[in-house]
Amino acid sequence: MEILDSLMLGFSVSLAPANLAYCFAGVLLGTLIGVLPGLGSAATIALLLPLTYKIPTTSAIIMLAGIWYGSMYGGSTTSILLRVPGESAAVMTCLDGYEMARRGRAGAALGIAAIGSFFAGTLGLVGLILLAPPLAEFALDFGPPEYFALTLLGLTLVSFLGSGSVPKSLAMAALGLLLGTVGLDPVRSQARFTFGTLSLQSGIDLIPMVMGLFGMSQVLHLVDRQPKAEEIAKTPRKFLELLPNRREWRDSIGAIYRGSVVGFLVGILPGAGGTISSYVAYAIEKRRSPHPERFGQGAIEGVAAPESANNAATASGFIPLLTLGLPANVVMALMLGAFMLHGITPGPTLVTEKPDMFWGVITSMFIGNFMLLVLNLPLISVFAMVTRIPTAHLVPVIVLACIVGAYGVNNNPFDVFVMLGFGVFGYYAERSGFSLAPLVLAFVLGPFMETALRQSLILSQGEFEFLVTRPISAALLGFAALLFVTPVIRRLAGLLASRRSQPKAGR
Amino acid sequence: MKTWNLRYRYGFCLALLLALLLGVESAALAQRYPAKAISLVVPFPAGGRTDLIGRIVAQHLQGHLNTTIVIVNKPGASGVLGSLEVRQAAPDGYTLGFFSTAFITAQYTVSTPIVIKEYDLLAIVNVDPMAVAVNEAAPWKTLAQVVDYARKNPGKVRIGMIPGASAQIFAGALAKAAGGLKMIDVPFKGDADGAVALAGGHIDVHVAVPVAYKALVAAKKLRVLAVAAEERSPLYRDIATFRENGVDLVIGAFHGVYGPRGMPAEVRDTLIASIEKTVTSKELVEQMNTAGAGILFRKGEAATAFLAQQDATYRQIIEDLGMRTVPKK
């Protein structure tokens, strides 16, 4: 029972009063910046990095980690209440979360997001403790061909993300892929679609784009069609009625569980992390639901799955950092910086050389997740009141949040115009029945896919054999083909069945 | 009506008071530098290498300057957006830039209005040599063996680097200095994903600054073969130099503190003196070393000469490799 000993050691560190205080400070700050769309967890951690130099390393890492997973809890709040995704990982939560809020179930959406996050975060940590070393080795087997296959598999999910017509979803996905090519190309650094602007050389940033597509376009929807008074009045005022009811619980338990597993697995891969895992979890839920038409109309699974996934991904995102010293994303790069500022290089030697630090940080995340749950549940009743604010007062707040949020990413005013442009585009696209989610997914995956494909082709000297000769990539591509073909077959079978039954009905 | 009038009057008085205060404050500003927080523009995202080194320097520098230094990350267009921000700022010493080698290379590879003469280089603070790494399981024990293999097997060795950045220039310079090697350039987004691909055996060789390999070397996944430095250094665990391997190449990545041209002489002097105190302090040296960053301090004419020499070296390599996209002015 070596693990139990390690955990005891860890808890003896993380339960020390000072570390508890740092943990609390971290998760509180994380919740706040998650709620405020203008501030990202990366910017906040960067800001606090030099300040942590004066406190012990373990306490510093505990606090910074708290900011990171705390922001994942908070990020869903504005998605649900205002349809403004506070973090890129909270985009999927907008779809059904905001619809739930409009139907007076904001509390249930917030509640299931917090509880799902808690469950997923805890499960992710258990996975982190038990599976970290073998999974890190597995991640090394992922070369460019495997990444290409994986992104292609992700792209086949597009058809499950949109609501309504499949050709329209595919059109939006194509547009997303195209938008992803803006900027310097990944091999020769040639400028593409930059029209001579320097600001477009690094491509279009995801955050201003999603803030425009979802937040700003919602402002236009609100101006266009003011919610009726009775719609607003539906929000229950009693705390218990705010929480998910029995039916909602039954619908979301499976989604939370599946979202956690998917989020954990996707979160290990460098670069992908929380954002992609939330898409995949959402698509899976929609795919296996007997009533996929409910998605986008306020299905609670559509909140539970992506919110669980992005929290499980925060836990597994630590695996490459703690076992190989590899940062999987910007926040992990900052954590690496924090370790290095304290003269420690995280890697496979960390657990043997500094077990108190390793296990202290991990166990602090158990405590932090619990703190977040306790912190977030009472806040639900406060946040739920937002839905009762009249549109006239709400609209300027959303606009301000979007502008500040878009500017804050790169301190670049150009991004504000990008946000506004996508706001207008998103409004007209949705009015014409084009779903926005396929566009965002393709935009996120496109550049990964292009880089991986071109790397693979450079490595194979232009041969496409790598697609089938490498076992992992072949398996992933086979699965993608299966996913792509089954709906077609199902529809054909359905057509045949209805033809057979029709004459009977006619008689 | 009456209450409104009253309010206006209060408002007017308040505005007057505010104006007075601001006036007093700006008068105080003129007296002694620095009298308020300084922004240090880092033209790359938070969490990158330039950001990390910039933060270490800023953290110690603010003690010597007796003011707060705020890091402003302004990424985009290979660092050009951030450097433009510094050029457009008032030359009052309250907006400075922490720039990397890209500040030089971008002149030739990104079509921008950057002219390095429009900046005032205060000091160079860090230099790290380029390094070559291979997988721990690879047969090569020295750089000379890699060069030998690549020469006998043209177009076979897969070398990972970041396209359009100094790493591609490193790779090209290595191939040229080793007598025109033909290798396959495999592009990666950053040093980390390239190093992982090397550890996973997807490529054969990778070039980057030594610290990029630190964790994976400790994990016994990678081996650093050589560094392109003048001489061996304990900071890089006494790894052989390129020259020892028969490759005559000394090249690296550096960082410096810049300001817009036209800063008052006393502001410049204060800044340079404080940077010198910072960079020579024992604490900073220790912290930079643990972060795997080498120290090189150059100020005044020595700094200008260093920059001019680097500029000439990089321009030559970029032109030799046919990477120049910006026409000669």
| Order of strands across the main sheet of chain B | 2-1-3-10-4-11
The amount of helix of chain A comes to over 70%
Class of the largest domain in chain B, according to the CATH hierarchy?
Answer: Alpha Beta
Q: Gap between N and C termini of chain B, in Å?
A: 66 Å
Biggest sheet layout of chain A: 2 strands, antiparallel
List low-pLDDT spans of chain A: none
Gross morphology of chain B is globular
Residue share in β-strands of chain B: 15-25%
- DSSP strand content of chain A: under 5%
- Tell me which CATH architecture of the largest domain in chain B applies here: 3-Layer(aba) Sandwich
Gyration radius from CA atoms of chain B, angstroms: 24 Å
- Which assembly state applies to the chains in this document? heterodimer
How many independent structural domains of chain A? 1
Q: Trace the largest sheet of chain A across and list its strands.
A: 1-2
- Largest sheet entry of chain B: 6 strands, mixed
Would you mind describing this structure in some detail?
The complex is a heterodimer of chains A (507) and B (329). Chain A is mainly α and 507 residues long. Chain A contains 24 helices and two strands. Chain A has helices at residues 2-14, 17-35, 41-48, 57-82, 91-102, 106-140, 144-156, 158-161, 166-180, 206-224, 229-233, 239-242, 246-268, 273-288, 301-316, 318-324, 330-341, 350-353, 355-384, 391-410, 413-431, 437-459, 466-469, 471-506, and strands spanning 183-184, 191-192. In chain A, a hairpin with a 6-residue loop joins β1 and β2 (191-192). The longest helix of chain A has 36 residues, at 471-506. Chain B has 329 residues and is an alpha/beta fold. Chain B contains eleven helices and eleven strands. In chain B, the strands form two sheets. Chain B has a six-stranded mixed β-sheet. A five-stranded mixed β-sheet of chain B has the order 7-6-8-5-9, with helices on both faces. The radius of gyration of chain B is 24 Å and the shape is globular. At the A-B interface, α3, α17 and α22 of A face α2, β2, α3, β7 and α7 of B.
